[in-house]
């Protein structure tokens, strides 16, 4: 397997200088280099999710089964929603979605609220660019768009909104496989 110098650079710098902090690793630059190398594909989140209004001030801790804590949200504000994936492989992880993004990403409810307030929503299937991390990439930590550190590991997907490159984040390998449909495979292997 041949790795390009630009994709190995974060690993070499970590060996020389010690582990980078989330503020030090530029995931957008990493994504741009990987895409330039033909490693980016396009996928859409299509699997039905459950969502309910967040309580003002609520902090949502995203826990991935067999991995532990993925991220912790900032305190919820009025209109924010707690989203729960329907993905037993990941433990049906939950995460916070800001009010401004929720309607764009999930649209209108597909069901009435259950006893706990959860309603079904169909993702709008916004096409996202993605790169799957190879066995030699990661783990590394970076700052998610919502201001929390995320750790990306080999096999995970780094996804990016093609209309907003600052919206770049990690999706755990199992969650990506469970909730996204690939619409365009990368031109080059990872």
UniProtKB/TrEMBL annotation:
Residues 1-22 form the signal peptide. Keywords: Signal. It comes from the Bacteria. This is Uncharacterized protein. It comes from Microvirga terricola.
């Amino acid at each position: 397997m041949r790795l390009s110098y630009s994709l190995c650079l974060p690993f070499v710098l970590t060996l020389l200088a010690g582990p980078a902090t989330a503020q030090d690793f530029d995931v957008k630059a990493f994504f741009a280099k990987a895409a330039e190398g033909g490693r980016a594909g396009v996928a859409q989140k299509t699997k039905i999710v459950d969502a309910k209004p967040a309580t003002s001030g609520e902090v949502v801790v995203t826990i991935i089964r067999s991995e532990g804590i993925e991220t912790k949200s900032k305190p919820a504000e009025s209109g924010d929603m707690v989203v729960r994936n329907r993905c037993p492989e990941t433990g049906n992880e939950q995460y916070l979605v800001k009010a401004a993004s929720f309607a764009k990403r999930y649209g209108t409810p597909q069901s009435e609220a259950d006893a706990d307030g959860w309603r079904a929503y169909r993702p709008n299937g916004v096409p996202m660019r993605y790169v799957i991390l190879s066995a030699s990439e990661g783990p590394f930590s970076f700052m998610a768009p919502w201001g929390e550190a995320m750790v990306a590991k080999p096999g995970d997907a780094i996804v990016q909104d093609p209309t907003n490159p600052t919206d770049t984040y990690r999706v755990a390998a199992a969650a990506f496989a469970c909730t996204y449909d690939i619409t365009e495979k990368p031109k080059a292997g990872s």
